[in-house]
Design goal:
Helix content: 40-55%
Shape: globular
Number of domains: 2
Structural class: alpha/beta
Order of helices and strands: EHEHEEHEHEHHEHEHEHEHEHEHEHEHHH
Number of strands: 14
Largest sheet: 8 strands, mixed
CATH topology of the largest domain: Rossmann fold
Radius of gyration: 22 Å
Strand order of the largest sheet: 3-4-2-1-5-6-7-8
Number of helices: 16
Distance between the termini: 21 Å
Length: 416
């Protein structure tokens, strides 16, 4: 391999054919000529069971965009909290043992961890990094153990302290911590007992997948545009954190006042509840389209007049910017945000839309009404402002070029 090309190991519990942003990173780095290996699990997100197409033809999933895929067996996440815990435990424990063995003949210039929950997915990377004396980069996309406390998964102070010690160990063992939000820095430093130099803590936000940032116009097979109704679209995980009871309350509040249809696309733990509540209340202005491939989303976004992001509030969520915010900005559509903290700051600072406090159904109904009544040209200018903000702050090309430089610098330091 040419000395200007890198050999990179990506460690991630989630990967293609699951729809994850890490897929984009792997493809881009591979397209730049780098040799990429991905250590990952069996595809089972978000359904909770291993994909049928993978079980039938696993040989078709050994390579992605010229990157080699090394898969580790794990317990599927299922639909219950206990099975989710076993899913987390199975990946990092099995990958920490099988990963070094399966990759025993390989040498890498850098190891990169896609650290969405759980943070323990970084442990196999640290083990391999130690054995191969390779710098480890952890992209911190969630805050542990605070997130566990915030969503009610763990409440016992003793258990939270134990997880906190594990997080501290992981942070201190890593060579670089890449933080997706400015709001993460104070929290992460709290767990770094070593003297963490400034260049080891790096601001590294998310970007929108190519499907959104390329703005290719095509008709949607899922939804027809309707100029007689204002269309609000939510796309993504349908979980408890997204506060759908409040969204439904806002939808009900606007029924009969203004022609608004609420289109919800995705899957998750609140899917069944949403289906039942929409039927029980006869909400014909709420459309549940289910889960669809990522490549169908841009055409669906084009049918919308506004894109909705919602998140419950707490000290953790306020520091986080959900990945869909970048996709919404890149799409050039106005944003409705029922969200606090960093995400609300981005919406307001960019001029891309309107925001209100988390959990406030009345305020969400108000800003939706206001946006629906707004002059269409004003809405177009909002969407344009959001896209301009995206290109300046979250361009994938710029971010991945920066990551490439970080990898090279770490390789040079290792060789000194």
């Amino acid at each position: 391999m040419s000395k200007d090309k890198l050999n990179i190991l990506i460690v991630t519990q989630y990967f293609w054919p699951e729809n994850m942003r890490i897929n984009d990173l792997v493809k881009d780095m591979s397209d730049r000529g780098h040799k990429i290996t991905v250590l990952t699990g069996l595809p089972n997100y978000p359904e909770g069971k291993v994909y049928e197409k993978y079980k039938k033809h696993p040989e078709q999933f050994k390579e992605f965009a010229a990157a080699k895929i090394v898969r580790i067996p794990l317990i599927p996440r299922g639909k219950r909290s206990l099975s989710l815990i076993f899913n987390y435990l199975s990946f990092f424990t099995i990958a920490s043992v099988m990963g070094p063995w399966k990759l025993r003949h390989e040498r890498y210039d850098a190891i990169f961890v896609y650290a969405v929950s759980p943070i323990m997915a970084a442990i196999p990377a640290l083990v391999i990094g130690h054995l191969k004396k390779t710098p480890v980069f952890i992209w911190v996309l969630d805050l542990w153990p605070e997130t566990l406390r915030a969503v009610g998964v763990l409440k016992a102070p003793l258990l939270l302290r134990c997880v906190g010690r594990l997080v501290s160990w992981i942070y201190n063992q890593a060579d670089y911590l890449l933080l997706q939000s400015h709001g993460f820095f104070e929290n992460v430093r709290r767990y770094c007992t070593k003297d963490i130099s400034t260049d080891r803590l790096v601001y590294f936000p998310s970007w929108a997948e190519d499907d959104f940032s390329n703005l290719i116009n095509q008709p949607s097979t899922l939804l027809q545009p309707d100029s007689n109704v204002f269309t609000v679209l939510f796309a993504g995980n349908l979980g408890e954190a997204q506060d759908f009871p409040v969204v439904i309350e806002a939808a009900q509040a606007l029924a009969g006042k203004v022609a608004v249809r609420w289109v919800i696309v995705g899957d998750g733990r609140m899917s069944q509840w949403l289906s039942e509540i929409v039927t029980a209340r006869g909400l014909d202005n709420v459309l549940l389209l289910g889960r669809h491939p990522l490549e169908e989303m841009p055409a669906l976004f084009a049918c919308a007049d506004a894109l909705l992001v919602s998140l419950k509030t707490n000290d953790v969520f306020e520091k986080t910017i959900p990945g869909k915010v970048q996709a919404y900005l890149a799409s050039g559509k106005p944003i409705l945000g029922m969200i606090n903290g960093e995400a609300a700051r981005v919406i307001n600072e960019s001029g891309a839309g309107l925001s209100c406090d988390s959990g406030d159904a009345t305020a969400l109904a108000d800003i939706t009404f206001h946006l629906a009544m707004m002059d269409p040209e004003h809405r177009v200018s909002m969407g344009r402002a959001g896209r301009d903000y995206y290109l300046i702050n979250y361009s994938k090309f710029s971010l991945l070029s920066r990551l490439e430089r970080l990898f090279r610098d770490a390789t040079l330091r290792k060789g000194q």
